[in-house]
Write a structure and sequence with these properties.
- It is a single chain.
- Helix content is about 55%, strand content about 5%.
- It is mainly α.
- Helix 12 packs parallel to helix 15 (about 270-295), helix 18 (about 335-345) runs antiparallel to helix 19 and helix 20 runs antiparallel to helix 21 (about 385-395).
- It starts with 7 loop residues before the first helix and ends in a 5-residue tail after the last helix.
- Keywords: Signal.
- This is HEAT repeat domain-containing protein.
- InterPro entries: ARM-like (IPR011989), Lipovitellin_superhlx_dom (IPR011030).
Length: about 525
């Protein structure tokens, strides 16, 4: 560790002036704010006991007022962090270098002016659209450096409260503008995380329809807010979503979009313009759902579930609503689970929306999720509903649960089943764990090759798809099985076909429709195994 040296004489020499033999006035202090050796001279005055106390305080404040040089602020290294002089000697920050009694007195003297400067209003934009530098930033940065220093510099509770209150007010009074302000030593999010839950109590009030920082504000509330703050944010985000998802919002945005098209000299029809507004609305809603995902809360759960259940909402919007519920569905709330179940089983639900509903159900405890998944096996006319539900069930199982699963699958060719189904089931079964005393996956699945129930037999064959060449004989015995595979309508997208060589020995392939279990084995399963290892 570098040794910090507090040698006032050396400091004075380094400053290039013999301060010990000169009378130093307040005008000298302010003049040094703009001179090359000013920081070292001000440091010497602030730390040396021979100077009048008001002058020492003014020197410390002048270090904060100094304009940056080469983008560098002098106050924090010279007051708090420490710096290295021209001789390579490390020096403590002026506040750190003081003894405990002087440090307490210095902070008590500085804090009123720090707070006053931190409360300066944000400068207005100039006529050319640019914004002047925020004069409060250097004082805010020094205040935070003092407050967050380890070991603590600010030990008086009243002083700490003053600084924390001023910093919180600074951050929240112009949050949108200051979140992205790059010319500051400490970012707002860093400050909030240090200051804790009390600093974000007013943030729910900043969540507004026109806000461009909704997601970041929501993130701070989610990470730092107490239960009351999160509840307020949950309510406010639902309010914003309802505002955006309204005809009033459409009416307000339509002329703005029309004007933007005119400025861009874009010839847009009324129909196309309507679609532009709807697309914009969708983008804004999705942003709000993204923020909802971070905050959670009962208001958001109720709103998102209801929104996702509405078939007249677009697929993307419904997906965003279900995504917002990740990890939020209450396992003890039967109504929540039933709403998800209804979305998943509805034949009119788009596949992508259904998949997310299944994913939310899959986040529930196994004892709740699995019975719901099994209920979906027969609740829908679409084989894909069963496929997704069954795949989630398999991810919760061990080989001990395999008999119940196989018994739930279609029994005969009259029940629709896509060829992808048994192959994917087989792949998942290969990964099942075997509890102590239970059969390994291969041993557990092999008897189902002789099953009289079609779904179980096909899934057992799917287990060997892409498997070892040494197992070919095990499945090839079924090449003579003339049981029909399930038949599907064209719209079901569950046709049975495999690519086969156009002619013996030819690399050129053609699609062959599969009609029986034996053909499934001969043209699909066995070829997939013949290139496998032993």
């Amino acid at each position: 560790m570098k040794k910090w040296v507090a040698s006032w004489a050396l400091v004075a020499v380094a400053a290039g002036v013999g301060l010990s033999g000169c009378a130093v006035s307040e005008s000298d202090v302010h003049r040094w704010e703009g001179t090359e050796q000013g920081p070292r001279k001000l440091y010497a005055v602030a730390t040396h006991a021979k100077y009048a106390w008001p002058l020492r305080v003014e020197a410390a404040l002048s270090l904060i007022k100094m304009k940056p040089r080469g983008g560098k602020l002098w106050a924090i290294p010279y007051l708090v962090d420490g710096y290295v002089d021209e001789n390579g000697e490390g020096r403590e920050g002026a506040i750190v270098a003081l003894n405990a009694e002087e440090r307490k007195k210095m902070l008590e003297s500085m804090v009123p002016e720090l707070v006053n400067q931190i409360k300066q209003p944000l400068p207005s934009k100039k006529e050319d659209g640019t914004t002047p530098a925020d004069p409060s930033v250097p004082f805010k940065d020094v205040a935070f450096a003092l407050l967050s220093h380890d070991p603590p510099l600010v030990t008086d509770d009243a002083v700490r409260a003053q600084l924390a209150g001023a910093l919180t007010e600074w951050a929240t009074s112009n949050l949108e503008a200051r979140l992205d302000y790059t010319v500051q030593q400490y970012g707002i999010e860093q400050m909030f995380r240090y200051l804790g839950a009390n600093s974000v109590k007013t943030l729910p009030g900043l969540l507004k329809e026109e806000s461009s920082k909704t997601d970041r504000i929501a993130g701070l509330i989610a990470d730092l807010g107490d239960a009351e703050t999160k509840q307020k944010a949950s309510v406010q985000l639902v309010t914003i979503a309802k505002q955006i998802d309204s005809q009033a919002w459409i009416n307000k945005q339509t002329p703005l979009v029309e004007e933007a098209n005119k400025r861009a000299k874009a010839n847009v029809s009324k129909e196309a313009q309507t679609e532009q507004v709807k697309k914009y609305q969708e983008q804004e809603l999705i942003k709000v759902f993204t923020a909802m995902k971070k905050v959670g809360g009962r208001p958001i759960i109720d709103y998102a579930l209801g929104f996702a259940a509405k078939g007249d909402n677009s697929e993307e919007r419904r997906k965003a609503a279900l995504a917002a519920l990740e990890g939020r569905v209450d396992k003890n709330n039967t109504a929540d689970i039933e709403k998800l179940f209804d979305i998943a089983k509805n034949d009119d639900t788009p596949d992508a929306v259904r998949d997310l509903a299944f994913t939310r159900l899959g986040e529930l405890p196994k004892e709740i999720a699995v019975p719901k998944m099994y209920a979906l096996f027969d609740a829908s006319k679409k084989w894909k509903v069963r496929w997704v539900a069954a795949s989630l069930v398999l991810r919760t199982m061990t080989t001990k649960d395999l008999p119940e699963f196989m018994n739930r699958l279609p029994k005969n060719p009259g029940q629709k089943m896509g060829m992808t189904e048994p192959i994917s089931y087989g792949g998942l079964i290969t990964k099942l764990d075997a509890p102590a005393g239970e059969k390994k996956p291969r041993e557990a699945i092999t008897p189902y090759l002789k099953s009289n129930e079609l779904g179980a037999k096909l899934s057992a064959l799917g287990f060997f798809y892409g498997g070892k060449k040494a197992d070919v004989a095990t499945v090839a015995a079924l090449e003579g099985d003339n049981q029909a595979v399930p038949k599907c309508d064209k719209d079901d997208e569950c046709g049975w076909s495999c690519d086969v060589a156009k002619a013996p020995g030819s690399a050129e392939k053609e699609s062959k429709e599969i009609h029986t279990v034996g053909e499934f084995v001969k043209f699909c399963i066995v070829p997939s195994m013949e290139g496998g290892g032993s």
